[in-house]
């Protein structure tokens, strides 16, 4: 292939853009853009390749994923980009620790000189070795009940002393102290520094935890460190540390890494904070918020008392305005008049009943008098009785029978001379 080169005069340097990198020299250097174009042309010849590894970083920005892939068994890593259009076609959810195979194509960006790999396909091979161990431990601890909410201890409203386990001169320590003191200036700390990664992390953290748990003045313990690669956070998923936290009598707060980090300590601890800053806000109340709340409650209480007093006064005035309370004797007078009317009606009714009874009694006396045997005797009639019987037939008075005759004014004895029927 023949490359066209513009003619130049003797002693002049050709333009940098016209010099191929392979033909460059101190006297005729190539340009950055020409070099980058050459590199991109070389990289584009590689094409796509399938690679296997473990995801160690998975950061989502605007739907796109920027991550890193680690070779199993070595420390070799590479960075990759997964565009949102490709991600939407994946049939599985991916996360840090997943063991995957992915089809990647190298990309070299001429403008910035950056080198990366673009993902065109990705699928699970299985859990990464570390994730597989963590998942087995997670299942065992869950079966034992170490993740149950029922065993979580409540945090004190206002701790007198906060125990803090963190790295020496770490940003996590500064964040916890600064945010806690901003919220409650009188807060006190007992801080024990420990390694937050590596082989010393677990034993030093357990030792600090036991010392603070044995301190009667410490009301709550925070275990804090900043974010990091999942490999550096493995100590906070160690079974020895998890069981020490579960056995502690003092409430423990886990504040490891950032929002996306999730070591097993988060599940065993009594409270999981997304960041060290969040831990300070969750453990220490805000004095300004508490003062505002007290002022609000006092205002609400005063308002309720004023409303209650005003309501009671209105009710009292309403009761006092009723006629029965303005003129109590009026009710008595009305009742007296009603009683007098009832007495008058009762007396009239009794008089009518008595008059009717008198008339009826007179009628009955007249009837009784008319039907009385005495009345008949007064008219000149007499009643003859013999043998204790009233004589109604001559045969009732045989000859020689004795008896008596009753007349109007008395009676007298008689003897029968006998008689005959008419």
From TrEMBL:
Entry function: Bidirectionally degrades single-stranded DNA into large acid-insoluble oligonucleotides, which are then degraded further into small acid-soluble oligonucleotides.
Catalytic activity: Exonucleolytic cleavage in either 5'- to 3'- or 3'- to 5'-direction to yield nucleoside 5'-phosphates
GO CC annotation: cytoplasm; exodeoxyribonuclease VII complex
Subunit structure: Heterooligomer composed of large and small subunits.
Residues in OB-fold nucleic acid binding domain copies: 31-123
Family designation: Belongs to the XseA family.
Annotated GO MF terms: exodeoxyribonuclease VII activity; nucleic acid binding
HAMAP family: Exonuc_7_L (MF_00378)
Subcellular localization, as worded in the UniProt entry: Cytoplasm
Domain named Exonuclease VII large subunit C-terminal: residues: 146-342
Organism: Microbacterium limosum
GO annotation, biological process: DNA catabolic process
Annotated spans, Disordered: 1-32
Enzyme Commission designation: 3.1.11.6
Protein name: Exodeoxyribonuclease 7 large subunit
Alphabetical keyword list: Cytoplasm, Exonuclease, Hydrolase, Nuclease
Predominant location category: cytoplasm
